[in-house]
Design goal:
The structure is a single chain. With 363 residues, the chain is of the alpha/beta class. It is 34% helix and 16% strand. Strand 9 and strand 10 form a beta hairpin. The termini are far apart.
Amino acid sequence: MNSPIDDASSPPSHSSAVPSRRSAGGSQTNPRRRRSSAFAPLWIPGGSQTNRYPDLVELATTQAGVLHRAQLRDLGWNAHRVEREIRMDRWTAVAPNVVVMQNGPLQRAQQLWLGVLHAGSGSALTHLTACIEAGLRWEGDERIHVVTTKGDLVTPLAGFVFHQTRRPFHQWPHPSASPLRVGIEAAALLTAERDSHFRRAMRLLASVVQQRLTTAERLMQTGLQITKLRHGAEFRLVLGDIAGGAQSFAEIDMGGLCAARGIVPPRRQAIRKDAGGRRRYLDCEWDLADGRVLVLEIDGSFHMRTENWWKDMQRERAVVTAGRVVLRCASVEIRLEPESIARDLLTMGVPRLTLGFVWDKSA
């Protein structure tokens, strides 16, 4: 069965992305048959296959030598002729209705074509596959992800994940990709929403911006077009931090956060700009019982140049100076892990609320 685009994916498959001829439903090669003199391990445009199959050259060149049987029928090839090429060990049946004009292992481009041809007309590369094809440098899921319209059942294929959706994914295409794939903005958001590790999902969104594949603003705009986007509100907040500017500290209310957890709110909150003039820091101050001032410095610039940036900031949370204790945290922590920040504030001596305390919200 296909996995809905809104639900968790099927378990990872460690099998080869190219099924055997038996599993693909193709004819079996006779081991006693001598190899044809036209044996070609890989499809090479302009190679020996060009002379043998002049009627297939244009289509095969476009699709890296991967063809659907319906396409072959349209070009005048009957089933018997296709099966003969497979029996002669010139072609390989890699799916019930898809063949490749070689008998060697498939290259990346051929795997992509296999996915969309097997899924059927109108399908597109999606999720992490579309991100990587757009240029994203990322290590992770190596399966090929393909999206189809809800109801287009696709036979499972090892090494591939086929998603069904009612979402209008054809409205988010890459303008010139072949095979068709979802644009980088939608692909990144769809990948992030399915990731069970939220930090990794945020790192992916930050990476597509930092690698200059798109902008945070375009991601936010596309996110509004994807119906029922899981974690959509959280993504918009994080993307605001990535983009910086006026929205960087939107909806961060340290006073309300503290009051809700029984902690005295800060006596002052002030936004501070960095050397480049960006609204980067939100400083919150408390007066401690020993006479010192505690400053919580919230960094609104979402850095992901190293995976350990967030952890490094947590390890180096406290910086003590004369009469002042400075705690550092990321705006994303305030949004996603407020309890951790609250514990650190209490540890550093921020008092708890007492009966009769009046919070001046204008401070």
